[in-house]
Amino acid sequence: MKLLVTGGCGFIGSNFVFHMLESYPDVSIVNLDLLTYAGNLENLQDVTSYGERHRFVRGDISDPDMVCSLISEKPDVVVNFAAESHVDRSIMDCCAFIHTNIRGTQVLLDACRQYKIPRFVQISTDEVYGSLALDDPPFCETNQICPNSPYAASKASADLLVRSYHKTYGMDCVITRCSNNYGPYQFPEKLIPLMITNALHDFQLPVYGDGLNVRDWIHVQDHCRAIDLAIRKGRTGEVYNIGADSEFPNIEIVKHILDRLSKSHSLITFVKDRPGHDRRYAMNAAKMRNELGWQPLVDFREGLNQTISWYIEHEMWWQRIKSGQYLNYYEEWYGSSLGGAATKTSS
Description:
Blueprint: E1 2-6, H1 11-23, E2 28-33, E3 54-58, H2 64-71, E4 77-80, H3 87-92, H4 95-114, E5 119-125, H5 150-169, E6 173-178, E7 180-182, H6 191-200, E8 205-208, E9 214-219, H7 220-233, E10 239-242, E11 247-249, H8 250-260, E12 268-271, H9 286-292, H10 300-313, H11 315-323, H12 329-334, E13 342-345
Parallel strand pairs: 1-2, 1-4, 2-3, 4-5, 5-6, 6-10, 7-9, 8-12
Antiparallel strand pairs: 3-13, 9-11
Protein name: dTDP-glucose 4,6-dehydratase
Domain NAD(P)-binding: 4-306
Keywords: Lyase, NAD
C-alpha cells in the first residue's frame, strides 16, 4: 500500500507514520508537511531505519502544483492530518486556519478526484460538534455539527467539503473524528505537555477558568490504530467517532501531573477563561467498535504516567521546541535553507 500522508511531521501524523511502517512491511509513505511551527522533523529522527519506505516532502497542501505532483504518483490512500489546530491561535487570527484547513482540503480533494485516488481519509476532531452539558450523552456521528471556535469551524467546513465530494462526485471518502489525544511528541502548547514541562521547571501552570472543563482523552497510539482500521475497513462516505471513554476535568489532569512529579499544587494559576470555551466533549465510539472491531488498549492513568516519563526522558526534544532551536533541524538535515520545496527519503 502506498500512502500520501499530509501533516506527517506533527504530533498525531508522526505517530501514525511510525505505526504504519512498523505494522506493515509492504507500506510506503510519502510525507507532505509544510513544517509550520508545529511540524517538527525531529519527531521522525528514528524513521531512517525504514529507508526508502518513507519519503519526506516539504510543501503546502494549499499549493495545487505541489499536491498534483505527488498525487500523480497514484497513492492508494491520501490521509489528511495537515491542519492548524490550536484553538487559542485561531481566536487571535484565523486566516491560517482558513488557508490550511479549508483551502488545503479542497486542493487535496480536487487532486484526488483528478487522479482517481481510491480513498481519501480526513482526520477531523470532536470539536466540530460543539459543547456538551455535563449530563448530555456523548456525541454520536448523527449529531449536528455546531462549532464554537474559528478552529472548529474550519475543521467542520473541511468535513462538509469532504462529504460533498463524496455525494457529488462519488469519491471514496471517510472522515474520522477523535477526542483529545495525548502521548509522545505532542507540541508543548497543548494542555498535558505544557503542564508537564512547566512543572518540571517549577513554572506556573495556567488553567483556564475554574478548571472544570471536561475532555475525553485517548492515547495517540489507540487513535492511530483506529485510523488504520478506517483506512482498511471503513465504509465509504461514513464518519467514525473515536474516543476512549476517559472523561476528566482539566484540573484533575493537572493535579495528577503535579502529584506524579512531587510538585506543589500551588504552581496552579487560574487564568481568564478562553472565549467560547466548550465545557465538555465526549465521544460515542460504538460505531467504530462494532463495525471495525476497534477498542482502545491504553488505560488513561497508565498512559498518562508513561507520557510524563517520556517528557522527563526527552527534555532535549521539548527544550529545543521551547527555545525555537527545532526550527533549524530542517537546515541541519538538508544542509540548506528553509526556502522552497524539498524531498528526502529516510535512507
